């Protein structure tokens, strides 16, 4: 199905199409480009113009450029604009303008990507959904997501992130959501903000882009909830709070975390909802309530929403539960892994540790008589001068104190390593590669292991080393 013709894209961007081309997708990376894509030559670590010839050779329908690149013919299929980033933004606005989809925008210090995926699953029970890939939530990710939106989309979920003040509101205005959601405000990106209040004001600015009469949904359990509420009431037609606190509009009244799922109950507009999520964790259940609030304000069928919620499970690196068979001849010789290695800040680490502390272990199946709860934690980045203190403070969490061992990766996590009591202090390494080499021999059947850290720490390599203990027999719980 054609997504953009040369004439449409030229009109949207004010650029010039050199030929009459038609694109079925939009790409910014030649490594993942599919035949028929419009290749956008953004400048990042390298200038995308250097890859235009390669993109065309791989079957790109055309390339969005600010000049004809060296080695590319003058009559090649191009869309020439004054500036590629500005051109992509214009294409995104045009993609948003031509759809009748109901648009949901989401931000938060923790949980925005998993909640976006939850929304993708639940809204998918009601119609055709378009949502951002991975964490495409920045100045190029949002317009790229909008530019990729098919005309016949019925629901769109746009994730919006930030690293510095003033980033969220322009992206929200570009997305023009009918519903905007803030999952949580927590210490993250503190290098760029003076306080947690500053982060709350920035997150609340997602409500600035709401369509007239739009709905603001915000977390009512936070010290900064008042900031979210004030902006919601100023910018939205309807303001809806969610959480466990008294007075929340969508109030979670109970959460029962089981071995591989969470069962929760919530009250909304005088009615009760019982729902299940295919992952353990109170944080998943609370964000699930926010998703159900979105469905309620969009007036979607509640039974369909609840059924779809039960089918959602976190993806790799975001809390996925994996069972690893350590001995093919002994079905009981398994190790449980929580793969949460994609990102980390104090709030998300605390939530993950709570899941680990409550996870059941197996006894009398390994070399040691009792199964153990083991955490492998990597540095939490962008916390500014408070970083060492916030890392060391993890030792004081009740969930941390319930663990058997905590292994630490990175210079900041050394502060946690030194703050731990000796009986809990596991290994410390500078890099994930070092931890990946030594950790497997410290694990055993019956253990439950959680791996979490900021993406740049590369803890996926530790996850891979644990998975490889199963010699190919690792099994994702969600895949049966």
TrEMBL record:
Binding-site positions, ATP: 108-114
Primary location recorded for the protein, binned into one broad class: cytoplasm
Subcellular localization(s) per the UniProt record: Cytoplasm
Superkingdom of the source species: Bacteria
Key word Cell wall biogenesis/degradation present: yes
UniProt GO MF annotations: ATP binding; UDP-N-acetylmuramoyl-tripeptide-D-alanyl-D-alanine ligase activity; UDP-N-acetylmuramoylalanyl-D-glutamyl-2,6-diaminopimelate-D-alanyl-D-alanine ligase activity
Residue ranges of every copy of the Mur ligase central domain listed in the record: 106-295
Name under which the protein is recorded: UDP-N-acetylmuramoyl-tripeptide--D-alanyl-D-alanine ligase
EC main group: ligase
Keywords (A to Z) from UniProt: ATP-binding, Cell cycle, Cell division, Cell shape, Cell wall biogenesis/degradation, Cytoplasm, Ligase, Nucleotide-binding, Peptidoglycan synthesis
Catalysed reactions, semicolon-separated: D-alanyl-D-alanine + UDP-N-acetyl-alpha-D-muramoyl-L-alanyl-gamma-D-glutamyl-meso-2,6-diaminopimelate + ATP = UDP-N-acetyl-alpha-D-muramoyl-L-alanyl-gamma-D-glutamyl-meso-2,6-diaminopimeloyl-D-alanyl-D-alanine + ADP + phosphate + H(+)
Pathway field: Cell wall biogenesis; peptidoglycan biosynthesis
Record domain Mur ligase C-terminal: where: 337-454
InterPro entries: Mur-like_cat_sf, Mur_ligase_C, Mur_ligase_C_dom_sf, Mur_ligase_cen, Mur_ligase_N, MurCDEF_CellWall_CoF430Synth, MurE/MurF_N, UDP-N-AcMur_synth
């Amino acid at each position: 199905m054609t997504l953009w013709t040369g004439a449409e894209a030229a009109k949207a961007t004010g650029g010039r199409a050199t030929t009459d081309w038609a694109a079925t997708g939009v790409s910014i990376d030649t490594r993942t480009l599919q035949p028929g894509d419009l290749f956008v030559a953004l400048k990042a670590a390298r200038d995308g113009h250097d890859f235009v010839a390669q993109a065309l050779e791989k079957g790109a329908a055309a390339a969005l450029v600010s000049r004809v690149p060296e080695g590319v013919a003058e009559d090649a299929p191009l869309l020439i604009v004054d500036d590629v980033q500005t051109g992509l933004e214009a294409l995104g606005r045009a993609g948003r303008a031509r759809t009748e989809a109901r648009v949901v925008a989401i931000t938060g210090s923790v949980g925005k990507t998993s909640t976006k995926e939850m929304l993708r699953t639940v809204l998918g029970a009601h119609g055709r959904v378009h949502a951002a890939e991975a964490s495409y939530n920045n100045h190029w990710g949002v317009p790229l997501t909008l530019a990729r939106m098919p005309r016949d989309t019925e629901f769109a979920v746009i994730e919006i992130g930030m690293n510095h003040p003033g980033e969220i509101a322009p992206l929200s205005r570009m997305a023009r959501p009918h519903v905007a959601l803030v999952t949580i405000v927590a210490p993250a990106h503190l290098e760029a903000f003076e306080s947690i209040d500053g982060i709350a004001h920035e997150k609340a600015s997602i409500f600035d882009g709401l369509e007239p009469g739009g709905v603001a949904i915000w977390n009512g359990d936070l010290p900064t909830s008042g900031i979210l509420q004030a902006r919601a009431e100023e910018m939205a037609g309807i303001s809806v709070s969610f959480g466990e606190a008294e007075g929340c509009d969508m109030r979670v009244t109970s959460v029962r975390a089981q071995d591989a799922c969470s069962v929760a109950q919530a009250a909304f507009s005088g009615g009760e909802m019982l729902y299940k999520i295919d992952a353990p964790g109170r944080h998943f259940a609370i964000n699930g309530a926010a998703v159900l609030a979105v469905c309620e304000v969009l007036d979607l069928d509640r039974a369909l929403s609840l059924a779809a919620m039960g089918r959602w499970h976190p993806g790799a690196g975001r809390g996925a539960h994996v069972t690893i068979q350590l001995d093919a001849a002994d079905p009981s010789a398994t190790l449980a892994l929580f793969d949460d290695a994609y990102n980390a800040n104090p709030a998300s680490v605390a939530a993950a540790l709570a899941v680990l502390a409550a996870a059941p272990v197996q006894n009398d199946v390994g070399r040691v008589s009792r199964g153990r709860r083991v955490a492998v934690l990597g540095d939490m980045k962008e916390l500014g001068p408070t970083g060492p203190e916030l890392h060391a403070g993890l030792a004081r969490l009740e969930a941390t104190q319930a663990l058997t061992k905590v292994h630490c990766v990175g210079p900041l996590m050394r502060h946690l390593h030194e703050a731990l009591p000796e009986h809990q202090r596991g290994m410390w390494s500078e890099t994930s590669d070092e931890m990946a080499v030594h950790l497997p021999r410290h694990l055993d059947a019956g253990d439950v292991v959680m791996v979490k850290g900021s993406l740049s720490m590369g803890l996926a390599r530790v996850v891979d080393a644990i998975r490889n203990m199963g010699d190919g027999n690792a099994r994702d719980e969600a895949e049966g």
